[in-house]
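User: Predict the full complex structure for these chains.
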Amino acid sequence: MMRNDMIVSTGKSVHEAIETGLKLMQATLQEVDIEILEPASRGFFGLFQRKPAVVKVTRKQTVNQREESESSSQEDILLQAIESSLEKASAADKLPVIQAANADPSPLKRRGEETDTNRETGLVWIKNGQIFCKEAPTHYPTITPKEGVILYKNGEVIRKTTVITERDIVKVELKHELKHTDWSIEIDESKMKAILRVEPGFKKICKLVDQEPSSHIHLEVEEIIEATNHLQPTHVVQKMQELGINTGIQKVEILKASEVLQPAVFEVAKGIEPQKGKDGWLELCVDTEWRVSGPKERKDGTVDFRDIKSIPRVEAGEVIAIIHPPQPGSPGVTVTGEPVPPEPVHEIVVQIGSGVDLIDGGRKIVALQSGRPHVEYRGKIARVQIMPKLVHPGDVNLASGNIHFLGDVEILGDVDQGMTVKAMSNIVIHGLANSANIVAGSQVIINKNVINSHVTVGKSTLSMARIGQLLKQIAEQLENVYGVIEHLYSTSAFKTSDVSTMGLSSVIRIMTEKRFQTLPVLVKEYKKVVEKAEQDLTLDDGYKQLDVDLTNSFIKLLPAQLKGPEDLLVLIRRVKEMHGYSVTPPEPNAVVSIPYAQNSEIYCSGDIYITGQGSINSRIHSEGKLYVDGSVRGGDIYAAMGAEIEEVGSRGAAPTRIRVAEGQTIKIKSVMEGTIIQIGNRSYQFFQSEQNVFARLNREGHLLLH
Amino acid sequence: VFDYEIIPAEEKTLVIFRGDMDIDTMELIEEEILPSLKQYAHVEINFSEVPFVDSTGVGLLINLVQSLKEEFVKVKITNLSPQIAEIFNLLQIPDIIGRDVFEE
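Assistant: Here is the predicted structure of the two-chain assembly.
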């Protein structure tokens, strides 16, 4: 079909006439000049007798004008098809144009270079994201869209491969994605910090991939993702204001958060932690511990190898200790400006025992009599006293009777066969112990031999472990009992009319019948263990008092014992307190010092010193360390914290065994064959005598001997 | 004030408790009610008019039921209010005096 360079067209309006002309010429407004020959005019009654508008449309002479060609019939058919589709897509110009392809001058120039026009193929290509095409007289290029790209040809969406011509209006719509920056501010539970979480957004830009000219192209899309952070520091500050955050704002963190390009967390406000104060405490002005020092030089230049006799002593009127009040801490501030009180500090409660008094407005503890100062702590309670002391001038025998004393005991003579000496605190025996039973709360010194005797010092770890276990179970049960009583009190049909006369005894009677039937069993067991422990050693009064109160409450069901739920709470607190006391290390300062033990049993919850000849066929158990200056022949020795022994073993006798806890060491100057040593559960028997043994476990758990 | 009524019948003697079962009922229960109920073979204690209990009252009830059972008297407790049933369950009363006492 020939194309006209000039056309005269008509229409109901000038506008319509131009449109018709453009359509006929297959041209756009930019490609033509227009001359209005006749504007439209209305007839008398408007609808009738009206005259059409007439315009002349003339094609501008431009370089990219399509050249006339001797159109083949095939081309005609194609063009007609395109024309008809163009007519359908009359609204095409109004579509949003993302990419538009217009014929570029270059294909024409290139076309001019072609020689064989008949064989020419149409070409399509993409350059700088734009689609260009050049048709050939006998061939049109084709294009195939791709998912993610919407291809419009003359306003219609193309889903399959299509032919394009230079007159087609081809548009491509590419998907862009924009994700905004997510962020949030959270104040933690304690209100001590505000956390800003930022998840930066991104921009996803799709771009058509450039393609070389070809008769057919598949559209290709390239995605470019770019992280973006839209967070403005002012937004953060505003949000923090909304949340009431006004303290400890971290400006640097806010700035960092507004720049970050990966998800991140920033502490944008930090509260001020309260400063812990100091509990009240007792400053001791005198030595209260029995010191056992290693070899030390005396003032006169001689060497005292084992000085254990430095027993602390104060004179009447001497200040024993100064009581320091607690120092309160300073409060902190939350991020929202609320004050945070510091942990409460506690005063030290001083119990004044015998022989001491408070002076200076209760700030100092002074001795009223001379003697050994003794301080015992239980939680925040310190009991201070001058330990009373019994001095027995001669031997302990059938004539004198056994000695039991709540304090220190000093025996100037021996302790004879079958006799017992028991002291709450320390025992010093100047003579020997023969088939005797010696029991002390903290320390024992015997200056001469110990034969066929039992010496027990400090808390028995075994019965203490049992006591601790029972108190723990009792405390748990009591808390459950309290829980049920609270529940009962909250029920609507329950009256407490009997509490004034019966206390809690009625409800406890019912509860111990079934629901808490193990409670009385535990209390009875506790009584048994306490009574047994009391026989072996001097037990703290607290355990005995607790036994009495538990028995009154849950076995005897005395109405006056627990007058209400408050009393039960107090009892629970006491049980827990004594439980805590029972699991603290037993009397770590306990000491036994003897020169020689034969066929005896020595138990000490602290260190044991054997300062003379040594031990023969004795069982020795120390929860601390064992030092033997002489030799150990036969028997079974255990020292939890390690052992240092001069000489071990004897020929032809039963093997001697030395055991220490895992991680500890055994030092022996001279060991004979047959001796067994054991560290933790690793043991070794010497098959020949050796010198300077330093037994220990290496990291792999192997026993090293030197 | 606590009050009670005994309605003897051939099959089952009905006992109606009226009022709070608390420490003040001790004398009445131990000295009057328990001795007079021992003669019957089958006793039903109706609790519908007992609004409140205290623990001593619950203890007295336990004692009453256990004493009667020792004398081979069959005992049932009926018409417990849900509030009192809650108290009984908290104290595991059914386990102490027997679940059969509460079964219809």
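Chain A has eleven helices and 57 strands.
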